[in-house]
Amino acid sequence: MIVGVVGKIAAGKTTVAKFFEERGFCRVSCSEPLIDLLTHNVSGYSWIPELPEKAEPTRERLIAFGKYLKEKYGGDILIRLAVDKKRHCKNIVIDGVRSREEVEAIKRLGGKVIYVEARPEIRFERLMKRKASKDRTIKSFEDFKTMDDAEERLYHTSKLKELSDYVIVNEGTLEELKERVEEIIKDIAEKV
């Protein structure tokens, strides 16, 4: 089983994916192949499209390189690479699905897609708390909105909600989120 997790920056995609991981799924993010290629850490793959010049995987570089790969190798390239990296796993959860092509690729593989959403203010607060290195350039809510709007223009993330099999509004507690994920895992298991 393959499950894709979609949502805007800091909506809770990784947290949802980690709950799936706790239930035995192998977790991989869509950005992982990009990071692996940029850092030349490619031993886990059976194939790679090309090896770029070695570079620090900043959010800007990841977006630019991801865009380049999608234009050259197809919009589903990151899903193909993520699934290849976890090819030895029975169940895979893919965190950070960002485009219609990626959603369609997961569905072609018989998978399900979950859309995670939260208000911008909540997402900004989470982003500031997590202090991820890729988010270093975001210092204010205005910076966050600029990045969020740019990502929306690039990927049309909010439109992916209508293509998703499940929607999670992640504005409550971690326990509420976990309960919702458990319901989805149960529902998916019943349909397989």
Structural account:
α2 packs across α4. The protein has a 5-stranded parallel β-sheet with strand order 2-3-1-4-5, with helices on both faces. The mean pLDDT is 93. It is globular. Helices cover 49% and strands 14% of the residues. The protein has 192 residues and is an alpha/beta fold. The chain has a single domain (2-191), classed as P-loop containing nucleotide triphosphate hydrolases (Rossmann fold, 3-Layer(aba) Sandwich).
Task: For the structure shown, list the relevant keywords.
192 residues; alpha/beta; Rossmann fold; five-stranded parallel beta sheet; 5 strands; 49% helix
Report the uncertain regions.
none
Q: What order do the SSEs take from the amino end to the carboxyl end, as H and E?
A: EHEHHHEHEHHEH
Extended strand count: 5
Radius of gyration: 16 Å
* Computed structural class: alpha/beta
Broad shape:
globular
CATH architecture: 3-Layer(aba) Sandwich
Mean pLDDT: 93
Helix content: 40-55%
The CATH superfamily is known as: P-loop containing nucleotide triphosphate hydrolases
Would you give the CATH topology? Rossmann fold
Number of helices: 8
List the domain count as a whole number: 1
Q: What distance lies between the first and last C-alpha atoms, to the nearest angstrom?
A: 8 Å
Sheet having the most strands = 5 strands, parallel
